[in-house]
Amino acid sequence: MDWTEIIAEVNSSELDAAENIAHMTVPYGIYIEDYSNLEQEVLEIANIDLIDEELLKQDRTKAKIHIYISPESNPAEAVAFLKERFDAENIGYKLYSDKCDVESCLENWKKYFNPINVGEKLLIRPVWRDDYDADGKIVLNLEPGLAFGTGTHETTRLCLEALEKFTFKGARVLDVGCGSGILSVAALLLGAGSATGIDIDELAVKASVENAERNGVSDRYTGIHGNLAEKADGCYDIITANIVADAIIMLSGDIEKLMNDKTIYIMSGIIDTRLDDVLSALPDTLEIIAQYEEKGWICLAAKKKK
Hints:
Layout: E1 3-11, H1 15-23, E2 31-34, H2 38-46, H3 53-56, E3 62-69, H4 75-88, E4 93-100, H5 103-110, E5 116-118, E6 122-126, E7 138-142, H6 154-166, E8 172-176, H7 182-189, E9 194-199, H8 202-214, E10 221-225, E11 236-242, H9 245-252, E12 259-271, H10 275-281, E13 286-294, E14 297-304
Parallel strand pairs: 6-7, 8-9, 8-11, 9-10, 11-12
Antiparallel strand pairs: 1-3, 1-4, 2-3, 5-6, 12-14, 13-14
């Protein structure tokens, strides 16, 4: 199978911000080349000061982010997303790509995806890991496949923490941009009565349905292939949108149609520099009732004003 490798070359000083953006394009890890602290890191890791001559010739002012796009995904969309986000953050960059077989890379990534605790009640367990201690927490068994949403990214963790706070027994949940279904499944495990996940990626919808089955909540979960909330109807008690700022802004014009007077609307995937843009786009009838932040990412919870 042919995979597309996208390489983003950025200034080493801007790597952290660029890496956060790159993580939003794929759910299965990225590869970083950064030689800015080569000697120090080699000495700390290997306890030697003899370094290959080719490594010493590398440009210390630049870093490269390698992103692998699956055959089922559209590389052009990933490139467009990277350009938009890098430009918004004023990150200098060069983008180029090549084709590669990264199945072995994906398998290697699985070795580093460990069970993780989220909030006070949840433990996210990759289905291939049996060495974990739930310690009384609710276990969410996850196989992300090629869909976004593992719980390792800040945007997803912040959403999960918000869901833990606001989910109540019997709640009707809408998950816009459901990805792996991690948010929908978590809400159902936390007591929600039903959940509907919508995603423009058909493979993501398939993964979300399979994850609902893995966790014994498939009878309360519906996966829909579609664009944002166009195929949703009625009102929901909780709406999650773990997408990007521009998509949240686009959704804002119609979101009230899906809300009742007590609906909690959870938005994530917002880089802190776009917070004002998102807030400005929200209807005046909504108010922010909670804000969560981690490493420059922001998650908001809103509801209708009384």
